[in-house]
């Protein structure tokens, strides 16, 4: 709830609901894994301990009965740095070994994309964001200079004009901006939540 309540008011407003839906639809696979990891990392330590692991197992047990519910067994399989805890990199390895465990999180995203703009529109949003990211990376590496408008870029622009109207392009750009703002707010809220957990643990 703390990750969704962006302004920390204790209630979820419609704007927050929309922002979270947009953000979740824009998540990559790694983003979803990080979100789930943070949900089960109750104390905000950056690792999953035995108590948190048991909660994880109880939540996903019906969906993945082959998942090792014994903490010691899981540690032996995924704890590559031998610290007795499961960090995010080890959590990603867990997902590779047992993909059905976190399948509901990815199914949720699939259903949300279908019920909102539709799969094709979200694919185009992703493509637009990736294109903007590559342009920004180029500018960062070349002192703010924009990349040359080469043949490939021209073809991409022509294809975009053929596939969607100017209004739709503007809508997708607005969604991209909203998604970035939502991610920033969720990150700040997550940091605040972790800080509160650490203070509570110290008490």
UniProtKB/TrEMBL annotation:
Any one Pfam family match given in the protein's UniProt record, by short name: EF-hand_5
Residue span(s) of domain EF-hand: 1-27, 28-63, 66-101
UniProt KW Calcium keyword: yes
Gene Ontology molecular function: calcium ion binding
Biased composition (Basic and acidic residues): 178-194
Stored SMART domains: EFh
Domain of life: Eukaryota
Region annotation (Disordered) ranges: 176-203
Record keywords: Calcium, Metal-binding, Repeat
Record flagged with keyword Transmembrane: no
Record-given protein name: EF-hand domain-containing protein
The organism of origin for this protein: Triparma retinervis
């Amino acid at each position: 709830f703390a990750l969704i309540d962006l302004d920390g008011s204790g209630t979820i407003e419609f704007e927050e609901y929309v922002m979270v839906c947009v953000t979740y639809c824009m998540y990559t696979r790694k983003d979803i894994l990080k979100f789930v990891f943070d949900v089960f990392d109750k104390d905000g330590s950056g690792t999953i301990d035995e108590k948190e692991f048991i909660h994880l197992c109880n939540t996903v047990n019906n969906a993945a009965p082959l998942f090792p519910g014994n903490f010691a067994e899981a540690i032996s399989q995924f704890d590559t740095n031998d610290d007795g805890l499961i960090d995010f990199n080890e959590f990603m390895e867990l997902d590779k070994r047992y993909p059905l465990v976190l399948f509901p999180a990815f199914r949720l995203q699939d259903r949300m994309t279908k019920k909102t703009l539709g799969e094709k529109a979200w694919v185009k949003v992703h493509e637009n964001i990736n294109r903007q990211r590559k342009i920004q990376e180029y500018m960062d590496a070349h002192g703010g200079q924009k990349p040359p408008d080469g043949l490939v870029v021209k073809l991409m622009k022509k294809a975009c004009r053929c596939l969607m109207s100017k209004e739709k392009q503007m809508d997708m750009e607005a969604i991209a901006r909203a998604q970035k703002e939502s991610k920033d707010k969720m990150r700040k809220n997550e940091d605040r939540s972790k800080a509160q957990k650490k203070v509570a643990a110290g008490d």
